[in-house]
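Before any further analysis, we paired sequence with structure tokens, yielding the entry below:
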Amino acid sequence: MTEENNPCSSCSSKEGESCSSCSETKKSHQLNQVKHVLAVMSGKGGVGKSTVAALLAVALQKKGFKVGILDADITGPSIPKLFGVQKAPEVTELGFFPVKSKSGIKLMSINLLLENENDPVIWRGPVIAGVIKQFWEEVIWGDLDYLVVDLPPGTGDAPLTVMQSLPLDGAVVVTTPQDLAGMVVKKAIKMAQKMDIPLLGIVENMSYLECSDCGKKLFPFGEGKTELMSQEYEIPFLGVLPLEPLTSSLGDQGKIEESTSYDRIKLELLKVKE
């Protein structure tokens, strides 16, 4: 999908400037009652951020909360695939209705608006920013306890738009054991701090591989230093997720809700102000 056929209905601009300016004057949808908005961020690509965002949403729902996921990774959306959702959202005069997963988690992603999930989204930063704002302002999320926002990697336009435009209660950071990943993730942490976004926790993904024969933990990327990072930046350490073939397979099949890895996320340490 190119800029010429973007789904923005707010204006006719192809460059996105008008989209951004019109969205500035709008508030979130009047039918929405979203109690908490949580961003899942990393700064580093390939760390499994979308999987962690999905597992966090599943974990919260298992606790009895009403949950939605806003896929803000416009050029690399993964959420519909993880949940096995392909249905296009219903569009009415009131706005977009998010699509529900099998267990009832509400989802909105640019991939749900594409004719083919493999079609690329070839847009500049202002257009991407405008669509992210639309997903917040024009989607009828209804009553939610938590809206999980899956951010793209980096510290550019899209994460900046979320941090400036959405009423975030805080961010959960995802990293992997490698020092290289840690270096880039620290940039995202410092970005959040500069934007005064509370850091609610950090998760180490792909931490280890458990031998199916002996149960011994193997560390293909070396033992991580995420707990030390959490202490350095005073961020709650929400735990580690292993390299787990079953979770990967379930994600590929669109059955991430069947994974039990969400149990490894220490929700009791996720302190969100009421």
Summary: The longest strand covers residues 33-41. The two ends are 40 Å apart (CA to CA). Confidence is low (pLDDT under 50) at residues 9-25.
